[in-house]
Design brief:
By secondary structure, the protein is α/β, with parallel strands linked by helices. Helices cover 44% and strands 22% of the residues. The longest helix is centred in the first third of the chain and has 21 residues.
């Protein structure tokens, strides 16, 4: 089996139909107008994309580029310039930044520079006193010195890409770190005083059984991280890993039945180890969550950097995925936006419901406050009421007063829908926008 965009059958097709979209390139005046008119509220999150890696993992589906010191230096400078351009363009909107996180790529390859970037955000935007800054990190970057440097430069939370605590799995995934580096990384981050430490773990690996996955999770729980996030190995067709499997250099993944066994093994194992599900894929010991990931779905989120996506709450846009073109555009004083699209109220409602159910509960009163319309009426108009009814009928959802919760039985269905969405929409956007820096139009899926 391959966990590609066709692995989820009818469910994947329904998601693809429901979220089909057309991104178009516009002139800068039009982009600014669409953004300023569509910001749904003043509180915004910030996402910063750092695409550079010392080596490229064959299964990684994200926008990334090989480390070149000269290019990285120019890129960090461009990041600060882009933040300045956006801050100046929308200074009259009174935006307040409530969350900042950086992904990649490998953001942990730099440290002092993050202090400069965050200082630029503070100079250009009103930043909430409660705002935290989180970054994704590779374990072998997190030496004792690096962990303290990151903390001293304003990094509050860290998400460590451990992926596995078995050497054979790391070699198969093409990871450049070892098991010992992962163990040391968590210790170093704890010593440095990070407010929240998340550990990423990966399953559905070739030759991996449920028993081996449980063993991996038990080892991960001994790291005493605040949060453990579990990702299946996705295989979009544009990644080298897809070709490796097709050519027989790597075995195919476990089948769908094993996928389900692995998923519930994660739920039960981590619950037994003192973690509580806070999303269908994420488990916490503190009840807190690394970064406000819901802003990617519901907005407003401002994205900076090559390949960064933004969503104002009514308008979605993406920066060029070419690092060179990104730097060139910003240095010329132009926003590096490659394409955008308006998002109708109906789609925003589906995104809101999907995001809240990914966090396992939806408050209907909150929904009605956001959308200014009765929940049942809006769900019926967009045709989503049937999916909710079926979920309630089959016990995947449970309604208690004004709250709809995902049951343990329903977590598997939510897991399938979430990863089918990732493969059909975000991965397809990356695939299309990495083909050429400035496409005129992109249709997904």
């Amino acid at each position: 089996m391959l966990l590609d965009q066709y692995a989820f059958g009818a469910l994947g097709k329904r998601i693809a139909r429901g979220f089909s979209a057309i991104f178009r390139r516009e002139d800068e005046v039009k982009f600014k107008e669409c953004i300023s008119k569509s910001v749904s509220k003043n509180s915004v999150g910030v996402y910063i994309h750092f695409p550079f890696c010392k080596s490229l993992c064959p299964s990684c589906p994200y926008v990334r580029d090989l480390w070149q010191e000269r290019v990285v230096k120019a890129y960090v400078s461009a990041l600060k310039m882009e933040i300045g351009l956006v801050g100046e363009a929308f200074k009259d909107l009174g935006l307040r930044v409530v969350d900042i996180h950086a992904g990649g790529g490998t953001p942990s390859l730099i440290d002092r520079e993050w202090g400069e970037v965050i200082q630029t955000v503070r100079e250009r935007f009103d930043v909430s006193p409660d705002c935290r800054f989180g970054i994704e990190a590779n374990p072998d970057d997190l030496t004792e010195d690096k962990a303290f440097q990151l903390r001293e430069n304003g990094v509050d939370e860290i998400s460590i890409g451990v992926q596995s605590l078995f050497k054979t799995n790391l070699r198969m995934l093409g990871r450049r770190h070892g098991v010992e580096e992962s163990l040391e990384a968590v210790e170093n981050c704890r010593s440095a005083g990070f407010k929240l430490i998340n550990v990423d773990m990966m399953y559905m690996l070739p030759e991996q059984s449920t028993n081996l996955w449980v063993h991996d999770l038990k080892l991960a729980s001994e790291l005493d991280a605040d949060q453990i996030t579990c990702y299946p190995l996705l295989v979009p067709h544009y990644t080298p890993f897809y070709k490796m499997i097709k050519e027989g250099r790597v075995q195919e993944q476990p089948d769908m039945k094993e996928f389900k066994r692995m998923y519930y093994a994660a739920v039960h194992t981590l619950t037994h180890e003192g973690y509580t599900p806070i999303r269908y894929y994420s488990f916490s010991r503190k009840g807190e969550e690394y970064s406000t990931v819901e802003l990617e779905m519901v907005g407003p989120l401002l994205g900076f950097g090559s390949g960064a996506m933004s969503f104002t709450g009514g308008y979605e846009y993406i920066n060029t995925c070419s690092v060179k073109e990104y730097i060139k555009s910003v240095e010329r004083g132009r926003l590096p936006i490659a394409g955008g699209r308006n998002v109708a109220k109906e789609e925003r409602a589906v995104r809101y419901v999907s995001e809240r159910l990914s966090a396992l509960k939806l408050n209907i009163k909150d929904f009605e406050w956001v959308f200014g319309e009765r929940f049942e009426a809006l769900m019926k108009r967009i045709g989503y009421n049937m999916a909710l009814r079926i979920g309630l009928l089959f016990g995947n959802l449970k309604r208690e007063g004004d709250e709809i919760r995902v049951t343990e039985k329903g977590m598997w269905r939510r897991n399938l829908g979430g990863w089918a969405f990732v493969l059909s929409i975000p991965c397809r956007i990356v695939e299309e926008y990495t083909k050429t820096p400035w496409p005129i139009e992109v249709r997904v899926p």
